């Protein structure tokens, strides 16, 4: 059985960043990922056709200058020179078959009347609806702004804690305000996965964990492989972590089990540039549609192709999704050059999450050899994931 200091389960940015901190500290570290590639919601699909290359994000798409912990890893890994800007194309609404600007749909008098509340109200203890409907006005919130918020985690966000949706963080002045990478965000996952000394095993779905004589025995994968570790890191969605801990830490498993998450059915389509007339957009939000957003690759224009990822509500059949894709893009199915699908998992956060988190931290305080990271702690942005991994690593070292 392979002996390790640390085994990390889950190869999204949370697991990768924690594995990175461990391996850099000289710990023998192995990461096990269910899929055949690392990255999780960092899913940049690489398309090759007739000598032409194109990538399309099926999950996360934008990083910011405020992502300081992520940038530290990017810098140390030597890929700062692959950071590229995103073109300034608009985030637009799609209403009654037409692309419309956000401003054109806002009630400006209502907005002006409500806006001073921005300086009076605090987000703490407020839901997204209760806070933002006072900042932009009830009607603006219901008809326009709420749909943009819903598009962020691809689920209804009325009841999300307002202070966990968008956070203000200190920015790095030497980095573009928002950016991606030459080959998409998954470049970050790939460079971390290639860190010297880090053992990565993909296509290894961990199915059981035992705790024997002070060590964790982690099992999974078709070959039934087993990995032994002094410290266990779970970087999987909360429901998976709960089920893996059920026998060895029932209290923590039960606490994790209180959280909910949404599955996002993401479908990316690639079209020859000449075959589509839709004006360039960063994203389309269509209120009350069967998708939460269409995120486009127009932010990094390509000479041959355009790409669009539809983040659909779960449970739709292929025919329904295809029909809506062709309708919105205004192209027939025969003009769609390539389609790629991915299921992403995003947490459903609720008021009271801070209390949930406090309780979780006090339960973990007694378990220095069990680290939990993911996008369901301080927030779901990429930087929240890396920050969580950094603080869990500090707990291990401290
Ligand atoms: C559509 C979408 C768009 C987004 N856009 C942005 C954005 O632009 N900017 C931003 O900051 N954030 C964005 N986010 C949020 C951010 O990308 C995610 O919160 C973050 O990438 C999650 O990382 P993670 O490692 O915690 O989870 P995940 O990426 O979900 O990784 C978890 C990993 O665990 C693996 N796994 C699960 N079960 C097992 C098992 N039993 N054994 C082994 N492995 C297992 C999974 O395969 C997966 O790879 C977006 C999210 C989505 C879904």
TrEMBL record:
Molecular function GO labels: oxidoreductase activity
Gene3D superfamilies reported for this sequence: FAD/NAD(P)-binding domain (3.50.50.60)
InterPro entries xref list: FAD/NAD-bd_sf (IPR036188), Zeta_carotene_desat/Oxidored (IPR050464)
Coiled coil: none
SUPFAM superfamilies, A to Z: FAD/NAD(P)-binding domain
Pfam families, A to Z: NAD_binding_8
Protein name in the entry: FAD dependent oxidoreductase
């Amino acid at each position: 059985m392979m002996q390790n200091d640390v085994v990390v389960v889950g190869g999204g940015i949370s697991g990768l960043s924690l594995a990175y901190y461990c391996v850099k500290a000289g710990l023998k570290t192995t990461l096990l990922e269910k899929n055949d590639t690392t990255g999780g919601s960092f899913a940049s699909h690489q398309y090759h056709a007739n000598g032409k290359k194109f990538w399309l994000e099926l999950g996360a798409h934008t990083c910011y200058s405020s992502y300081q912990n992520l940038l530290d890893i990017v810098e140390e890994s030597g890929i700062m020179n692959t950071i590229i800007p995103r073109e300034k194309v608009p985030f637009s609404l799609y209403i009654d078959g037409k692309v419309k600007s956000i401003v054109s749909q806002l009630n400006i008098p209502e907005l002006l009347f409500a806006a001073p509340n921005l300086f009076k109200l605090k987000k703490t203890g407020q839901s997204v609806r209760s806070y933002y409907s006072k900042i932009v006005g009830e009607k603006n919130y219901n008809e326009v702004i709420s749909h943009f918020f819903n598009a962020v985690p691809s689920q209804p966000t009325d009841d999300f804690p307002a202070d966990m949706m968008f956070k203000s963080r200190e920015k790095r002045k030497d980095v573009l305000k928002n950016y991606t990478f030459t080959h998409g965000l998954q470049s970050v996952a790939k460079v971390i996965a290639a860190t010297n000394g880090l053992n990565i095993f993909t296509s290894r779905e961990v199915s059981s964990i035992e705790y024997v004589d002070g060590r964790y025995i982690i099992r999974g994968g078709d070959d039934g492989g087993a990995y032994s570790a002094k410290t266990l890191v779970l970087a999987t969605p909360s429901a998976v972590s709960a089920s893996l801990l059920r026998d060895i830490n029932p209290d923590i498993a039960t606490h994790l089990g209180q959280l909910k998450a949404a599955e996002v059915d993401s479908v990316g389509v690639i079209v020859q540039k000449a075959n589509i007339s839709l004006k360039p957009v960063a994203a389309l939000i269509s209120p009350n549609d069967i998708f939460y957003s269409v995120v486009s690759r127009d932010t990094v224009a390509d000479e041959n192709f355009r790409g669009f990822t539809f983040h659909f509500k779960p449970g739709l059949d292929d025919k329904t999704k295809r029909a809506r894709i062709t309708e919105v893009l205004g192209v027939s199915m025969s003009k769609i050059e390539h389609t790629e699908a991915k299921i992403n998992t995003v947490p459903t956060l609720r008021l009271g999450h801070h209390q949930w988190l406090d309780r979780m931290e006090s339960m973990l305080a007694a378990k220095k050899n069990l680290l939990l990271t993911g996008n369901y702690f301080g927030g779901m942005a990429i930087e929240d994931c890396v920050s969580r991994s950094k603080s869990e690593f500090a707990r291990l070292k401290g």
